[in-house]
Amino acid sequence: MLVKNGTQFPKKLFKKKKKVAWKTTTTEASKASKPLLIKEIDTTQEIRLNTTDNELNRVLGGGLVPGSLTLLGGEPGIGKSTLLLQISLKLPYKTLYVSGEESQKQIKMRAERIVPNSDNCYILTETKTQNIFRQIAEMQPEIVIIDSIQTLHTDYIESSAGSISQIRECTTELIKFAKETNVPVILIGHITKDGTIAGPKILEHMVDTVLQFEGDRNHVYRILRSLKNRFGSTAELGIYEMLGNGLREVDNPSEILISHKEEQLSGTAIACTLEGMRPLMIEIQSLVSSAVYGTPQRSTTGYNAKRLNMILAVLEKRAGFRLGTKDVFLNITGGISVDDTAIDLAVVAAILSSNEDIAIEEGFCFAGEVGLSGEIRPVNRIDQRIQEAEKLGFKTILVSKHNKISLKNTTIKVVLASKIEDVVSHLFG
Predict the structure, then answer these.
(1) Rounded to an integer, what distance in angstroms lies between the CA atom of residue 229 and that of residue 16?
(2) What's the pLDDT at 405?
(3) Which of 227, 252, 269, 369 could form a disulfide with 341 if both were Cys (CB 3.0 to 4.6 A apart)?
(4) Which of 29, 85, 100, 6 shows the shortest CA–CA distance to 53?
(5) Which helix (H) or strand (E) holds 72?
(6) Cα(166)–Cα(57) distance, integer angstroms
(7) Looking at residue 393, what DSSP letter applies?
(8) If you write DSSP's letter for every residue of 241-279 in order, what string do you get?
(9) CA 131 → CA 55, 136, 138, 160, distances in Å?
(10) What is the SS3 assignment for 210?
């Protein structure tokens, strides 16, 4: 007991405050920031670290920003650890790969399949942040990778690893380290069964960039998306192919997203979509058949189910096609999901092609949005879409009549349509 002003207090009320996990050692970082006039602020582009991976560089906006914190999420077994280990083995910078899930021998066995020899990658198996920072202080890495944030724990929080308080505190310590040393940190994060990042929502607010690695483990292709990016666009997309020796960057996604068939089949149409600055040619597959079980089924893969119902209603009301008693199945090949409304026209073409059992002629593609009154609406950056279709050898592209096309001397034939009836008459006479 302690006595103060004649009153007794327990000693535990006067315990010293705990020290922070990461203590600044540089005098420059400890200087308080000063207010500046907005016209005096330097707007020169920040220096970025090249990850040697073109797909990751594109999604990040040009590379890793020094002092940034990046969170990579994805389903178990999708390839998050493989992707970051592969990058860390190829980086020309001194990299510390911290794993709380695998031993050093397990990581070494996986590394031998990807990149047998690396002179810059150091492996540390540790889950306690105090020990991790001690090793960081000794070796002074240029990039730190944590696999995963849910396995870390700190002595300053009395709870198990993976709990909300542990994840928040460990992330706070890593942010403090990254901002004060200018060392970029990449975290791997688990996701819940509904696909969101495990842990508190504040985790996504704290970090600078949130990346999502997605795909089907039964397919070889993986999609890397940006859900949040303080240093670049969130509309960019990276595509990888999972092989036995790691992940391969896919330079031309259109080749893998379009099936190669010996003969033309009904129910297939090619759409020209955009993912960020990147034009893609994707294949839309549709199957329309009589409903056997009474209630017609509407099933989609990679496309919004509500938008499919809207398009079917437009086809029935405005174009006179009786699809209310038929099952309609729609699939976007390659296992990717597309939100671009410019693929509506290809969805319409694929459904009508399957319904009439007439194949769309080879070399035909589509780029247009369908409105509720059955009109074909214009889409943005139509010139870039046309150029991509021409580059890949397509002969004809069907677009909205209201699009302003500035291209000249193109070899591809551009067909203009204002209503769904124009599309039907052009495709099926």
Answers:
(1) 39
(2) 87
(3) 369
(4) 85
(5) strand 69-74
(6) 30
(7) T
(8) EEETTEEEE-S-HHHHHS---SS--TTEEEEEEEETTEE
(9) 33, 9, 11, 17
(10) strand
* DSSP secondary structure letter of residue 187: E
> What separation in angstroms does the CA of 277 have from each of 196, 237, 298, 365, 384?
26, 9, 32, 19, 9
**Which pLDDT score, from 0 to 100, does residue 170 have?**
94
Low-confidence residues of the chain: pLDDT under 70? 1-32, 45, 260-262
pLDDT at 392: 86
pLDDT digits (tens, 9 = 90+) for 86-121: 999 999 999 999 999 999 999 999 898 888 788 889
Bridge partners of residue 144, in order along the sequence: 96, 185
Question: pLDDT per residue over 311-341, tens digit each?
Answer: 999 999 988 888 888 999 999 987 778 889 9
CA 37, 38, 39, 43 dihedral sign is positive
Q: For residues 333 and 343, give the distance between their C-alpha atoms in angstroms, rounded to a whole number.
A: 13
User: Which tokens go with 231?
Assistant: 């240093």
Q: What's CA 428's distance to the chain center, in Å?
A: 38
Q: Is 38 exposed, middle or buried (0-12, 13-18, 19+ CB in 10 A)?
A: exposed
Residues 6+ apart with CB under 8 A from 163: none
- Entry pTM: 0.76
Query: How many other C-beta atoms lie within 10 A of the C-beta of residue 411?
Result: 8
- CA gap 428, 116 in Å, rounded: 56
Tokens of residue 337, six digits: 């999901």
Instruction: Tell me how far CA of residue 17 lies from CA of 14, 124, 131, in angstroms.
Output: 9, 30, 21
Q: How far is CA 38 from CA 33, 35, 41, 166, in A?
A: 14, 9, 5, 38
Rg of the chain over Cα atoms, rounded to whole angstroms, equals 27
Bridge partners of residue 241, in order along the sequence: 221, 248
What is the rounded distance in angstroms from the CA atom of residue 276 to the CA atom of residue 236?
4
Q: How many helices (H) does the chain have, and how many strands (E)?
A: 11, 20
Please state, in angstroms and rounded to a whole number, the distance separating the CA atoms of residues 88 and 109: 15
